[in-house]
Automatic annotation (TrEMBL):
Native source species: Sphingomicrobium clamense
Superkingdom in the source lineage: Bacteria
The keyword Iron-sulfur is assigned to this record: no
Functional note: Converts 2,5-diamino-6-(ribosylamino)-4(3h)-pyrimidinone 5'-phosphate into 5-amino-6-(ribosylamino)-2,4(1h,3h)-pyrimidinedione 5'-phosphate.
Pathway: Cofactor biosynthesis; riboflavin biosynthesis
Protein name: Riboflavin biosynthesis protein RibD
MF GO annotations: 5-amino-6-(5-phosphoribosylamino)uracil reductase activity; diaminohydroxyphosphoribosylaminopyrimidine deaminase activity
Residue ranges of domain CMP/dCMP-type deaminase in the record: 1-118
Classification via InterPro entries: CMP_dCMP_dom, Eubact_RibD, RibDG_C, Riboflavin_Biosynth_HTPR
Gene: ribD
Record-linked PROSITE patterns: CYT_DCMP_DEAMINASES_2
Length: 317
């Protein structure tokens, strides 16, 4: 299952509106097929893995990060149909698909076809891998990651607005990896005008993974940019599982105030700026007590001279 999760995670940002599923087929202790959801959402991970294994699947076990689909599509048969037809003996599924078109029906179809089914293996890591798709299905909006590059004292720029470069090359390379896993990347109007950012992915081998670009503005956009008039407009986005908010302080403030940020990535540089531009403005908190318990810190990571801090929003289901 760990391998399946890794495969699905690598496909994140390429499959929307479909989930980025990973799949591994094992027979007699050997991997005979594996795959992830293809770019654009088809073929599904199970079909990719079965195609790789070919006839060597009779009696095999299939590991998948998400329940095999059960709803008919013009783009191909259901995975819950082709899996037993191929001769798979056992299916291990990390999580049940919350999409009401499947939602347990896929596992029921497998059992009815005589396939042994095991649920819940690696569920927590699979949820993290699929958090963009799951957020969209459960709450009708993409999973939102806010990226901030800060000094030790929490500044994003000098008083003049100069901010290149606060962080080093390793941190900036990591940002490109995160970009490659997003379906859309957003900046505020001020950042667009001041920096004219390209927001593309410039890592070797990932150049084709640049996300759609959006600007948060009440006015007009630029050619090649989509417009969001407010953070709440993310509920109307199509084919976006993962949204990355990259700048500047106005956009960060707006999304935090609307409580629409699910994860914060802080790239902390070992520099002091002193007087300068803060990362965010007023986000609606009037008491320190109200700020506690809202964010859960992840394990920090060293990126060259910088430090990556990860914070996940704590929400009640």
């Amino acid at each position: 299952m760990d391998r399946a999760i890794a495969l699905g995670s690598a496909a994140r940002g390429t499959t929307a509106p479909n989930p980025n599923v990973g799949c591994v087929i094992v027979k007699d202790g050997e991997v005979v097929g594996e795959g992830a959801t293809a770019p654009g959402g088809r073929p599904h991970a199970e079909a990719v893995a079965l195609g790789q294994a070919r006839e060597n699947v009779k009696g095999a076990t299939l590991y998948t990060t998400l329940e095999p689909c059960a709803h008919e599509s013009e783009r191909g048969p259901t995975c819950a149909t082709i899996i037993p037809e191929a001769g798979i003996r056992k299916v291990v599924a990390a999580i049940v698909d919350p999409d009401t078109r499947t939602a347990g029906k896929g596992l029921a179809m497998l059992r009815e076809a005589g396939v042994e089914v095991v649920e819940g293996v690696g569920a927590e890591d699979a949820e993290a891998s699929l958090e963009g798709f799951l957020m969209r299905i459960r709450h009708g909006r993409p999973f939102v990651t806010l990226k901030l590059a800060l000094s030790i004292d929490g500044k994003i720029a000098l008083p003049s607005g100069e901010s290149k470069w606060i962080t080093g090359e390793d941190a900036r390379a990591h940002v490109h990896v995160v970009r490659s896993q997003a379906d859309m990347i957003l900046v505020g109007r001020g950042t667009l005008v001041a920096d004219t950012p390209s927001l593309d992915v410039r890592l070797p081998g990932l150049e084709d993974r640049s996300p759609r670009r959006a600007v948060l503005t009440g006015g007009n956009g630029e050619e090649g940019w989509e417009i969001l008039s407010s953070p709440e407009a993310i509920h109307d986005l199509e084919n976006v599982n993962d949204l990355m908010v990259e700048g500047g302080s106005g956009a960060a403030t707006a999304f935090l105030k609307a409580d629409l940020v699910d994860r914060i990535l802080i790239y902390r540089a070992p520099i002091l700026i002193g007087e300068g531009k803060s990362s965010v403005g007023y986000i609606g908190l009037d008491q320190i007590a109200d700020a506690h318990g809202r964010w859960r810190a992840g394990t920090p990571r060293v990126l060259g001279i910088d430090r990556l801090e990860v914070y996940e929003r704590v929400r009640e289901e």
